[in-house]
Amino acid sequence: MKNENPKVSFIIPCYNVEPYIEKCINSIARQTISDIEILPVDDGSPDGTGKILDRLAEKDPRIKVIHKENAGVSAARNTALSVATGDYIVFVDGDDFIADDYAEYMLTLINQTGADVFVSTKHYNSKFEEPTKKESYKVLNREEAIALMISPDMIVYSPNKMIKRSLIEENGLRFSTNLFYGEGLTFCTNLAKVAERVCIGNRKIYYYRRNNVGSATTAYNIDKILNGEKALILLKDELDMSSELIRSTWTMHMCNYCVGAIVREIGSGKKNEHIEHYKRWKQFLKDHIIEMVLSKYVRLYRKGLIIGGLFAPQLLSLVDKRRRKKILNSEIE
């Protein structure tokens, strides 16, 4: 990395995150590196999010608030990308927060490896978790990086990554405004397709809030489920499916997505209302279960989920309800 003191731009899409946004912004402001800019985008929030952001910006000139009409998370991120001036880009969701050395940790490994993109594969999900005990990192080739981004073992969202801004701009990368669920998966996969080197580490530096009932990943909504399915199908057309690793990983992700959709439909009591979608997801599992069970790229845990989704979805739905209750009881504070 030629620039010894690179500037990092933090982009934070914000919509109705009044209870969380101050903690989020403060965690960014406390970063152990000096040269940062903080770009929160108030996406037309009807709550007090915008006022909190303006108040924080009055105290810290590094915070540059963008107010815009509501147009979704993709448009919010794209708006901030158009004005960002940092050498590197970081995305943080407005209801999450980060460790004080988040940027320093990522920059250190980027410096050591010459990576265009850094990904931390671990994060804090609950207040009971311990820090990473044994840290490690490695550099992936392009095929491995693409497979990582499309794997269900990777949280398919934009945070927990640091990206060279020139990589984004030189390749004209932006978030799809036609997708409101799965947009992060598409963007990150496109990054992996053009990056020369992707470094992954395992230190927990991102605090991922899973119990915000208004977030896209928490609230049940059939339109979101269908939009996520659409994102996966569109993504397949852009991948090199001649690669056994990529093909198996995409199929595994699609199978696990179908299992999740089936479980959520049963849990919501909407199965009969959306029976055609339900049957389609079950059929996809039937068509690919043998391939997945035999695949060397699919972990035993994922094979079990696929088998359970096909043959015992009611049981999985009960397990999912318990899991979600546990999440609510282990809220990140």
How are the secondary structure elements laid out?
Elements lengths: L7 E7 L6 H9 L6 E8 L5 H11 L6 E3 L4 H9 L6 E4 L5 E2 L3 H12 L3 E4 L16 E4 L1 H9 L10 E4 H6 L12 H12 L3 E4 L4 E2 L14 H15 L7 H25 L6 H20 L5 H12 L1 H17 L4
Parallel strand pairs: 1-2, 1-4, 2-3, 6-9
Antiparallel strand pairs: 4-8, 5-10, 6-8, 7-9
Description:
With 333 residues, the protein is α/β, with parallel strands linked by helices. It folds into two domains: 200 residues, Spore Coat Polysaccharide Biosynthesis Protein SpsA, Chain A; 108 residues, Methane Monooxygenase Hydroxylase, Chain G, domain 1 (Up-down Bundle), CATH 1.20.58. The chain has an eight-stranded mixed beta sheet with strand order 3-2-1-4-8-6-9-7, with helices on both faces. Strands 5-10 form a two-stranded antiparallel sheet. It is globular, with a radius of gyration of 20 Å. It starts with 7 loop residues before the first strand and ends with a helix.
CATH topology of the largest domain: Spore Coat Polysaccharide Biosynthesis Protein SpsA, Chain A
CATH superfamily of the largest domain: Spore Coat Polysaccharide Biosynthesis Protein SpsA, Chain A
Strand order of the largest sheet: 3-2-1-4-8-6-9-7
Oligomer: single chain
**Which structural class best describes the helix and strand composition?**
alpha/beta
What is the end-to-end distance?
A: 36 Å
Strand content: 5-15%
CATH domain class name of the largest domain: Alpha Beta
Main beta sheet: strand number and arrangement? 8 strands, mixed
- pLDDT below 50 for ≥5 consecutive residues: which ranges? none
The radius of gyration over CA amounts to 20 Å
Helix content: 40-55%
The CATH architecture of the largest domain can be named as Alpha-Beta Complex
